[in-house]
Amino acid sequence: MTAHGARILVIDDEKSIRRLLKVNLQAHGYAMFESESGADGILKASEMRPDLIILDLGLPDVEGHQVLKQIREWSHVPIIVLTVREDVEEKIAALDQGADDFVTKPFALGELLARIRVWLRHIPKQEEPVLTFGDLTVDLAQRLVLHHQQQVKLTPIEYDLLKVLVRHAGRVMTHRQLLQEVWGNYNVDESSHYLRIYIGHLRKKLERDPARPSLILTEPGVGYRFTVAYEEETNAKD
User: Could you say which of 3.10.560.10, 3.40.50.720, 3.90.220.20, 3.40.50.2300 is the CATH number of the domain covering 7-121?
Assistant: First the structure.
């Protein structure tokens, strides 16, 4: 597992810690998602299936050990525990309950990043497919998009959005799901305009007629769908 595409969920109630980690994790090529409570962290872990979790033990609602225990009931995702507690017994308990590693606050950012790299290397590598839809090819391994055999230059967000859509081709992806996958943001009301803007960018770069899209379809009030019928339409016109 390389930095690109690795999804990290940070469960920590300290906004300053989340902000620090978000800036640095994104700068190193990771996609970071965040939660400020134990209950929400468990929910996001189950919905998003991150590649690694950073978990603070001192959460305001559900004790960190309980969060760890619940996630371990169904997932083997690497979990790095953050704690202000120097108690050795506390750390032993976390490891016994399924934590893979721990870092004591305040921590050195370089050390945490090194530990993240170590645990991501333990994740079995999966072959990324090359997806073809008519005259559009998306090479997920190379992060390469070709349209009419010409490379299309996409921004990181445009690429991430297209990647989610093509991975779920034929399926309606809700606004909430896309915001979670690309931005790590659950606030549909405040962030859906960003989604519309970037969908518009993709249509301008990929559609024959952006005003009448045949590739990325809008499901009014619900979300967007990357249509698998696009390939059939292309072949029929050829």
Answer: 3.40.50.2300
Per-residue model confidence as pLDDT tens digits over 33-49: 999 999 999 988 887 77
130-237 is a CATH 1.10.10.10 domain:
yes
Instruction: Give one DSSP letter per residue of 25-72, joined into a string.
Output: HHHTT-EEEEESSHHHHHHHHHHH--SEEEEES--SSS-HHHHHHHHH
- pTM attached to this predicted model: 0.57
Encode pLDDT of 171-188 as tens digits: 889 888 888 788 775 565
Residue 126 DSSP one-character state: -
Report the C-alpha gap between 95 and 78 in whole angstroms.
Answer: 12
Here the tokens at position 15 are: 């906004």
Is the bond preceding residue 124 a cis peptide, omega within 30 degrees?
no
Phi then psi for residue 101, to 5 deg, are -165, 165
